[in-house]
Design brief:
Elements lengths: L4 E7 L6 H8 L5 E6 L6 H5 L6 E3 L5 H11 L6 E6 L2 E3 L1 H10 L8 E12 L2 E2 L8 E8 L3 E3 L8 E3 L2 E12 L4 H25 L17 H13 L5 H13 L6 H32 L1
Parallel strand pairs: 1-2, 1-4, 2-3, 6-11
Antiparallel strand pairs: 4-8, 5-11, 6-7, 6-8, 9-10
Helix pairs in contact: 5-8, 7-8
């Protein structure tokens, strides 16, 4: 008996991206579901060329939207692939998944980790520890959810996962202006989350977050390293991180485009988070 696949894509004014995303996803033998949060451009018209499964739901945050989709859409597949409008399914990934789902899958396997291939200003960012970067986008229905975090959310899979060797392309920006605006917004969310975590000493008693483990799967190792990063002092850690990423992990091999990316995403963004944390801490002392 073959397995069946559903694809969930979140949209909001994505007319520049959604057509290419849907075109790439069409190579998969799957039902496609769109969850839109109030687009006012041609996004919905483009979506309707590929699927009639178009739903609307107000956007609260990324995790809430993802989990609403998983819990409320009329899904019929045994597996769910979660995509964003700026993702592209590579032909290699489509061929591999069509082969995997053409036959029964080991009952103990509940998820697959897929690497992101970051495309920035038209260039694939291969170095600086940025590739491969694995995410649990694909899991057996009922065995995965999105972490309830304001930023840097990942899908958490209950049970065994396998690592795939093929990629999803992540087109992370259409311009530096939008890149900076989005990262400024994300820096605010991350700072708020980290300050709240420090103040309340949040403990993940229910296992809803990706467990940080040095010798775990690629996602668990990444979460472990992020927690280690957060243990360093404000403003010092972005310098250390950029130095490791750009020089030790050879980010400079990505050329001029790579310099722009690694500096903005690996230093400026991290420094901005720390600055916003510092601002929040100063404000709280005044109260």
């Amino acid at each position: 008996m073959s397995e069946s696949l559903d694809i969930i894509i979140l949209t909001f004014n994505e007319e520049k991206n959604i057509g290419d995303c849907l075109q790439s996803a069409a190579a998969l033998k799957a039902n496609i579901y769109i969850v839109d949060s109030g687009s006012t451009d041609t996004t919905l018209a483009i979506c309707q060329r590929y699927t009639q499964n178009v739903f609307s739901h107000p956007f609260e945050n990324y995790a809430a939207q993802r989990n609403w989709a998983l819990n409320n859409l009329p899904l019929t597949g045994t597996w769910v692939l979660n995509l964003d409008a700026d993702h592209r399914v590579t032909p290699e990934l489509a061929a591999q998944l069509n082969d995997i789902f053409s036959k029964p899958i080991d009952a103990e396997t509940n998820g697959f980790l897929i690497s992101r291939r970051t495309l920035f200003m038209g260039k694939w960012i291969k170095h600086g520890g940025h590739y491969p970067t694995y995410h649990a986008n694909l899991f057996r229905r009922g065995f995965g959810h999105c972490e309830e975090k304001l930023y840097d959310q990942h899908f958490k899979v209950t049970g065994k996962t396998q690592v795939l060797k093929t990629d999803i392309i992540d087109v992370i920006t259409d311009s530096l202006t939008s890149f900076i605006a989005r990262h400024n917004h994300w820096a605010t969310l991350e700072a708020q989350y980290l300050v709240e975590q420090q103040n309340t000493k949040v403990v993940d008693d229910n296992g809803k977050l990706v467990h940080p483990r040095l010798f775990g799967n690629p996602m668990e190792r990444r979460r472990y390293m992020k927690n280690r990063y957060e243990s360093f002092p404000l403003f010092v850690r972005p310098v250390i991180y950029f130095t490791i990423r750009y020089f030790i992990k050879l980010g400079f091999l990505d050329g001029k485009t790579g310099l722009v990316f690694h500096f903005l995403q690996g230093f400026w963004f991290r420094f901005l988070i720390d600055a916003k944390i510092y601002e929040l801490q100063k404000e709280s002392k005044k109260q």
